[in-house]
Amino acid sequence: MENEYQAPMAFKKSTFDFSRFNKPTTGATSERASLLEPFIERLQRDARLAGYKPMSKARICMLMAYIETEDLYAFHKKLEASPCYGAIWNWYVVAKDLNKK
């Protein structure tokens, strides 16, 4: 009889599968946050390309707070179809925000 060495339980290969825990592709934690991400990405990108300092995510979200969650998808599609995304967004969001004050 030979004494075969068997590794202790702690050194055996783990059978736990980490592949099912993928990192999230977005930072969204809610449905509203995931719907606001396209607005934030597009507005910040356009501002950088134009040479302006982009608005913060918090500022964009505060300006869009009065828009219902159900309407955000349709609003984004409407802006995507328009020739000037930022100008239309500014007219709908910022002008309405200023008129509330």
Task: Please give a structural write-up.
With 101 residues, this protein is mainly alpha-helical. It has a domain at 31-100. Helix content is 55%, strand content 0%. It contains 4 helices and no strands. The protein has helices spanning 31-50, 57-63, 69-81, 85-100. The longest helix is centred in the middle third of the chain and has 20 residues, at 31-50. It is elongated and about 85 Å long. 5% of the residues are buried. The mean pLDDT is 80.
What string, H for helix and E for strand, traces the elements in order? HHHH
Mean pLDDT across all amino acids = 80
Estimated share of beta-strand residues: under 5%
Radius of gyration: 24 Å
Number of helices: 4
Which structural class should the secondary elements be placed in?
Answer: mainly alpha
Summarize the biggest pleated sheet: none
Topology of helices and strands:
Blueprint: H1 31-50, H2 57-63, H3 69-81, H4 85-100
Helix pairs in contact: 1-3
Key structural traits:
elongated; 101 residues; 4 helices
Task: Please outline what is shown here.
With 101 residues, the chain is an all-alpha fold. The protein contains four helices and no strands. It has a domain at 31-100.
